[in-house]
Amino acid sequence: MDLENTININSNIPEYLSLFIHYQLEKIDESQINEILFDKIKVLLTYLREKDIFEQWYQSHLARRFIFDKPISEDIEDKMILQLKSYCSSQFISKLERMFKDIAISKTIMNEFNCSMNLNVRVLTTGVWPMQSSTFQCILPSSVNEAYQSFRSFYLKKYNGRSLTLQSNCGTADLSALFYDQSNKTMKYTLNVSTHQMVILMIFNTNKSSYSLEY
Question: From CA 174, how far away is CA 163, in angstroms rounded?
């Protein structure tokens, strides 16, 4: 069996290849760029038939790296896109470049915006990012909603005529939580949770009664 048939024998290969790149880009930095890695990826892309499926998965994984603040190197991501230009559609490359532009603009906006809360907002262009819009309204805790409304007012004043919709299904939060063991010793943890999990957990701060968990 030749190499092309071997690579395409499994219909999940486009997803697996994107996942392989995803995990590789998450764990390396600029000092660890390995040209052998890029050469291997180029060989696989050369013989991969369902490149359109690969493009869908790659865009989804790139969005995860951007939105969930994965420790990525933009230089490495740029180099990866240069590699993909020779094998993927121009429309796909254009969307990736627009995603990079959105992130760059978002960083500039956040540098201009002053907020007492450690808030990080990503302003994403509709139709470019591969996520479904949230179909329900998320009622944020008052302190978080105050910070969001402050940013919203700042953004709409800066960009008159635009609209801004909160996608709570894409957000994350870091919460400081205090737990007590049986000897009443305090244990402090930082919890990285989704926006919806944050909303539920912060309800515990609105009631002075104590809560316990038994299992």
Answer: 27
pTM: 0.81
Helix (H, G, I), strand (E, B) or coil at 211: coil
CA gap 30, 173 in Å, rounded:
28
Neighbours of 121 (CB within 10 A): 19
CATH at residue 163: 3.30.230.130
Q: Same structural domain for residues 120 and 206?
A: yes
Which residues constitute the domain of residue 77? 1-88
What are the phi and psi torsion angles at 137 (to 5°)?
Answer: -90, 125
Number of domains observed in the structure of the chain? 2
CB proximity list for 86: less than 8 A, separation 6 or greater: 42
Encode pLDDT of 174-197 as tens digits: 999 888 877 888 889 999 999 999
The DSSP secondary-structure symbol of 94 reads H
Structural tokens at position 10: 């499994």
